[in-house]
Structures are given as C-alpha cells and as structure tokens.
Amino acid sequence: MKDFFVIIRRNFISPIVIAIFSLALILLILNEKRDAWFISVVILINTLFAIVQEVRARRTLKKLELMSAPKARRIEDDGTINEIMYDELIVGNRIKIQLGDEVPADGEIITNSGLEVDESILTGESVSINKASKSMVYAASVVTAGSATVLITAIGLDTKAGLMTMTLKRYTPQITPLQQAISYAITWLTYGALFLAFLIFVIYRISGQDAVQIFKTITSAAVTVVPEGLLLASSLLLAFGSLKLAQAKVLPQKLSAIEAMALLNVLCIDKTGTLTSDEIVFDDIEFFDKSLTYLSDLVGIVAKETSINSATGEAIITALPVTKQYKVLETLAFSSARKMSGLKLELNNKTYVMVMGAPEFVGKLVSVTDSQVQQINLLTNEGKRVLLVAMFDKDIKSIKKIPEKSGKAVGIIVLSNNLRQGVQETVNYLQNNDVSLRVISGDNPNTVSYIAKQAGIKNSHRVMTGAELSKIDHSDWDKMVADTTIFARVLPEQKERLIATFKRLGNYTGMVGDGVNDALALKEADLGVAMYAGAAATRRVADIVLLDNSFNSLPLGMKLGNRIMQAIEIIATLFFHKIIYGVVLLLCTLALTVVYPYEPRHISFMNIFLVTLPTIMWTLFPPIPRHRLSPKYFWKDTLLAVAPIAVLTGFMVTMAYVYLRVVHPDDLLGVATTTVLIATSFGIYLVFLVPKMFDVVYDKEAKFARLLYILTVILITIPSFGIGFIRDFFDFTTPAWHNILPLLIFIICVALLQWKLAENAGKRLRMREP
Q1: Of the residues 53, 56, 235, 588, which has the fewest C-beta atoms closer than 10 A?
Q2: Which of 105-119, 537-551, 674-688, 707-721 has the lowest mean pLDDT?
Q3: DSSP string for residues in 320-386
Q4: Over 90: is that where the pLDDT of 284 sits?
C-alpha cells in the first residue's frame, strides 16, 4: 500500500501537473470556467491513466519476476523435499542447500557434504568459506561448493541481512538511460515554457491584451511545449515490450534491459549450456592400468558425493551407478575455482583417496606421462570434455591440501557435449548485427576452440587460458584481451575482470551464464543474461532470464526489443514535431503581434491526432525496423531529423493563419478553426512520414495499423464538427475556406518538401556506418 501512495505522489506532484492546475485555477478566477474545467479534467484523466498503467505494469512485472524467483527446498517430516518461496519459511524448518543456491535464511548446519559459501554480500570479501557441521550459514550468502541440510534459526528482518532485504523490497520505479534523457529534456522544456510564459505576458500586456487572453495563451503554450506524455508513452511501451518478451520466453527483470539489448556490441558467452546443449553425455572411462577394476566404483561414488547437482556429475552417476556400501571420511566438493572434486572414503574395508577434474589442475598434483598428455589432447581437439582421475596415499592429512606431484594418474573420463540445435543461426544473427562474440569458459582450450569453430564464431583460433591471463603484464592486458576470442580454463574472478576490461575499452558488454561462477561477471556486465535452470544466485543478479534455457531465444528478444525502441523513437519524433512547430507558431505570432490562434481546448483536440492515437497505434503494432537501432543516435534520429520538417510546419501554419486573418478579418473564429484543421492535417501527414524517416518495414500489420488510425481520425472528426454541442464545446465553427486556393498551393509545396526531407533522413539512416 505504501508503494501505491509513492506512485500517486510522484505522478501528481510533478512540475507540469502543478503548473497546469495552477493555470486552471487562474482561469477559473477569471471566470473562464469552460477552459479551466476542461484542462483540469484532461490533466486529471492523463495523470490517473498514468497511475493505473504504472500500477498495472508494476503488478504484472512483479508476477513475471516471481517466475524466476529462487525457491527454498524445505524438507518435510516424511523426508520429501518441497520447493517453496522464501517468505513461506518459518523458524524450525529444515532446508537443503546445494551448489549455486542463495541461502534463504540464517540457520545451523545439521549435515554437511563439503559445503563452502561466499559471504561477500555480508563481509565484502569474495572468498569461499568452508563450513563445518553445527556452524552457521547466513541469508544472502551463496553456495559455491557442496551441499548441506540446515535448520532455520532466523528469517526475514531477523536475519543478519534483514535490513538489506528490507531495503531491496522497497519499490523504486526503474528508469532507463533513454527515459532519463527524456526526463532531462522535459525538465529543460519546462524551464523553456516558463520563459515563453514570461514572454507572452510581457508582449501581450504591452499590446493591450486582457488577463483572460494572456493566461489562455500561456496555458496553450504550456500544454504544447512540455511533452509530459512522452515519458508515460515510453514507460508504457517498455512495460508492454516486457510482456511481449516474456511471451517469447525472454524475461526482462529490468526495463533497462530492452534498451541494453539495442546497445550491445560485445557478448561474452559460456560454452556449456550456451553454445552446447545442457545435456552432457558420458562416452567412456579409460584406465591407464587395466588391472584396477575397482576404479569405476570409486569414480561413481566420488561423482555422487561431490557433483550431484552438476550436468557433468549427473552424466557420470548415470553411467556408473553406485551399488556398494561405503563410508565418506572427507569431501572435496567441486567448485569452479578448483575445477576438481575428490573424496576420502572407505570401501570394502580399505581407505582410498581419489580426485578427478580438469587435467590442467589435477595434473599439478600428479605425474602425467607424455603419452597420457597426447591422449588427452587428441580427445580435446575433437571437442570432447576430458576429466583426469588420480589416486593418492590414504595417509594424507587433508584432501583439500594435497601436495603437488604426490599422486598417480590412473585414468580419464571422456564426455561429449553436442552443439545446441540452432546455435549456428543465433551466432550468425548476432555477428551480422555487429555483436562481437567472446567465449569465456572453464573448459579445456582445445575443446572450447573446437566448439566455437563449429558454432561459426569468428576468430575462434585466438585462444588464451586463465593461466596465461594471470601472467600478462598490466601494460599489455587491454590489447591482449581485445585481440582474444576464446578464454579457457578461467576462474570466476578472471571472468569478472574480462567483462570490466571490455567495458573499459568502450564496449557495451553482455554476459550469458548459468552457473554460480558466472554471477560476478553477470553483475559486472552492462547486460547480464541468465538461464532459468541456472543457479539462483545468477538469476538474482541478471537483467534478463531466458525462460526456455536457450541461448537461441536471445535474437528473438533482441528483435522484439528493437521494435519497442523503434516505436519509442517514432513517438518521440511526433512529440518533438508538435513542440517545435508550436514554438515556431507562437514566436511568429508574438513577433507579428497577432493573437495566438489556439484555445487550450484546440491543443487537446489536436493532441488526439498528433500524439495520442499514434502512441496507441505504435504500442499495439510496434514497427519492424530494417536495421538494428542504437539509443546513442536517439537525438540525432528524432529531434534533429524532424526539426526541419517541424519548422516548415510552423512557418506554413503561421502563414496560413496570417493569410486567413487578412482575407477573413470578420471571421476570426472561422480562421482559428481552419488553422486548427491545417495544423492537424500536417500532424496526421507526419504520422505517415515518420515510418519513411526511419525506413521501417511496411507489412500487412503496418497497413492494418494505419487503416485503423485513419478510421479513428474520421470517427473523431465527424462528431467534433458535425454534432452541435461538441462543436460548440471546442469553439469550432464553419471553416473559412473562401479564397484558400493560393494557400493550398503553398501547403502542397511544403508537404512535398517535407516528403523529400523524410526520404533523405531515411537514406542517411541506411547509409550510416554500423
């Protein structure tokens, strides 16, 4: 309820709303009741509409946000696990936490299997902390390895992170960079309106106009100059776009994500689950000593105890099911930093110590022969994923502190991860739209390079490993990173540094990931993209969640986002045209010392055709651009492109108004009506010119939208002039059409010139360098 009042206060207590109501009050005092009530009702309806739409958008987006919200695994009394929302937990519940989870509440560890957590959100230090049984875990920390059963001791505000959680729950409306620019423009235009109001007051007082005429003109100018509805229109389009994207299985968790997709020019992606399928297939297990037949049992046990929540671990567990009784003595759970897992256990009354993981990391702990290295390289060059299996002396002090070269390599596990269906088309689309792809993976460099080449990623031969990155001199870092496409065997903190580097080099950088090791990089990126099936901590920091867990959904999301951005640009152009032509007309009439032709009601009537109906049309039927948009060209493509067209409109309307006043000096009401019709005609004409300026696709949907617009214009115009009380309300009368032929010739010439200007704008846009 508190959030609802925040929305009301923000919409009603804005400079333009206060200014319009103040002018309405002055008009009421001056006994101009009809204009006073009319503009009051119009601004009230607009403000209420904005409030309703913001509340609806907030509720809808909140529901969409819940789709990707992390859930807690509550252990019921019968031992079954039930996934529930965090706010359903109560003190005394038992929950299970595992790799990638965000801890939902404070609690005491009951059972533990190599649990490690990152408490950086509480401590500020991003390091994994080993957790023993009976120790505490805290809400908002992230599980980086292992799993555990936890007894809840505190929830919500009673947790260590309770105050932070309360702050995060408070509603703050999100505004995109483009909306910030629009808001900034509205602020300056408001100051401009105040200056014009002062100018009108001074000139009209000098020319002998009465207070009623002065304040009616000031009101008309204020409604013309300040594009208050533009911010609302952009918010509606972005909210509408979010719903459209969610239907396409691309869930934007921030409105700014739609704009970010349009700016993206570097996209960093993982290999597994992004370029390749999220299903890993067990191919084979090969032992260097064929006599060690019991090793298959040990490998299955290690996978079951240390990697049960990973795709790699599940593939091994399925292929090597555990059938024998064993006892775990010590656990080394898999983590992205170690890139290995291990177990000290008892099996058949014997103690064993086994570790398996990336050959580059496990290989430091054992001696590997040249033939074994060659065998591993042959497999990785074919795109296979290879794990090295090693055995160690049972008397080692701790499996987490194994000395280098103290063990023996006993075999390899071979896995395959096929290219995701449709990924080549996705890669092709992104690269054709000037998005440079970089692969950042924890996998073997040969494997990653092979998969990247299969996917069609350019320069996939430019490979660097995490170990090589750590040796690069600071002065060479930027150049080496910029020239590299494949980053393999990288650590989570290296991923974050790579993203920061691409950003520092002037790139608008995105990151696609699904594991907890990707969370830091996603948070650092300009656009973080997470998989719905990925780690809860990763989804929490992402700007976009791919609900179908498919990288191939991203191009569809980018296309929809592009359409929404195009609609915002078109509507902004219509607003800028209305403002510029209105200011030109006002300044010309002030310079010529003639009364401004419009009443406040005339402005509202014209706005229906110039901005309201087009906004509805482009929201329901977003245009299809022929090119990829970039918000950095927003002002150039909108304000600067439409300015000459708007200036021509302003001069032509001024010329028509002055000419009609000379020809029909005794019919000023008819002159005003004719001027309104001429100005409205130019506004309607621009609705059809703008798509040409932006070179959008003219398909069946666009034709249908324009047809609806024309029909609506007719349905509104006929009663406005044909029904007596409506005509009288708007102060319309029979237009002053006599001796208008010379004027029509000028109007046609100006319209043709505007057509040419619109064509030139479209040509410049097509010729623009990417």
Answers
A1: 56
A2: 537-551
A3: S---S-EEEEEEE---TTT-EEEEEEEETTEEEEEEEE-HHHHTTTEE--HHHHHHHHHHHHTT-EE
A4: yes
The kind and range of the H/E element at 190 are helix 177-206
> Tell me, what's the pLDDT at 15?
67
Q: Is the pLDDT of residue 480 over 60?
A: yes
The structure tokens listed for 269 are 């992606």
Q: Distance of CA 350 to CAs 113, 321, 394, 401, Å?
A: 21, 20, 9, 21
pLDDT digits (tens, 9 = 90+) for 137-193: 988 788 888 889 999 999 877 887 665 444 434 434 455 667 677 777 777 887 888
C-alpha 238/C-alpha 260 separation (Å) is 12
Q: Rounded to whole angstroms, what are the CA distances from 689 to 238, 490, 677?
A: 24, 52, 18
Cα of 195 vs its chain's centroid, Å: 38
∠ Cα 324 330 334 (to 5°): 90
Beta carbons within 10 angstroms of residue 489's beta carbon: 22
Spatial separation of the C-alpha atoms in residues 250 and 545, rounded to whole Å: 6
Least confident of 300-314, 344-358, 631-645, 746-760: 300-314
Rounded Cα distance, 703 and 360, in Å: 60
Residue-wise pLDDT for 51-84, tens only, equals 776 676 666 556 655 555 678 899 998 889 998 8
DSSP 115-181: EEEE-HHHHS---EEE--TT-EE-TT-EEEEEEEEEEEEE-GGGSTTHHHHHHHHS------HHHHH
397 token code pair: 């002090």
Structure tokens at 29: 């005092």
Q: Residue 298 — pLDDT band, cuts 50, 70, 90? A: very high
Q: Among 475, 471, 418, 58, which Cα is nearest to 273's?
A: 418
- DSSP H or E run through 534: none
Q: Is the Cβ–Cβ distance between 398 and 332 less than 8 Å?
A: no
